[in-house]
Amino acid sequence: MFLLDDELIFPPVEFADFQGVLAVGGDLSVERLLLAYKNGIFPWFEPDSEPLWWAPPQRMVVFPKEYKAHKSVVALMKKNVFQITFNQEFESVIRACQSVKRREDDGTWISEEIVSSFIELHKLGYAKSVEVWQYDELVGGLYGIDLGHVFCGESMFHKVSNASKVAFVWLVEKLKNENYQLLDCQVYNEHLAHLGAFEIAREDFMAILKGE
To answer: Which CATH entry fits the domain spanning 60-209: 3.40.630.70, 3.30.40.10, 3.40.190.10, 3.10.450.350?
Structure first.
């Protein structure tokens, strides 16, 4: 594992350990975060800890052009039970993701420093959100980093059943229509697998990220 200092640099992703941890330390500046995402690296760590930077050997992804949404979610979207907006309430979405309790733990990795940095990335046009509404209330959504040909999903939330699924499927359809090559979902979990994401090798992910 590499120890980062003030120098704006990351080691090659191939140096990550078997779990995918590449480096520790550094900061969460906009410049460092952009460098990380553009090189297949993302932060994930406990609040009040040193930043951990990951490049896992298997990457959870969706290929928008090949994606087939579950019929139940498509049918739900056609009923117009939810209203969907794009990139209109970014701070509300990231703060909702921050506050939602996760089944696997009692907290969140989304610290105030993460929130602040991602809001700055949003202002610069990199961090974007999908918002799902019901009766004028924000009931679901997701956010991530938009690299132009790859969208790096970060977190999602729902307050009403199926709201995050609708946000996910809506985003994939948008990416398909705009010829994005990949939706990056980072690491495996059952919810993402149920939505249709799957793992590919890190080298394959990096080739797409680098446009090779």
So the answer is: 3.40.630.70
